[in-house]
Amino acid sequence: MLWMGFAFAAETLVARAFGGKNPTLVRKSVAMTGIWSFIICVLTAASFAFAGPWIIDLMVKDITVQEAARGYLWWMVACASLRWGQHGCWMVSLSEQHVAEICVT
Question: Long-range pairs for 94-103 at CB < 8 Å and ≥24 separation?
Answer without folding.
Answer: 94/26, 94/27, 94/30, 96/23, 96/27, 99/23, 99/26, 99/27, 100/23, 102/18, 102/23, 102/26, 103/17, 103/18, 103/21, 103/22, 103/23, 103/26
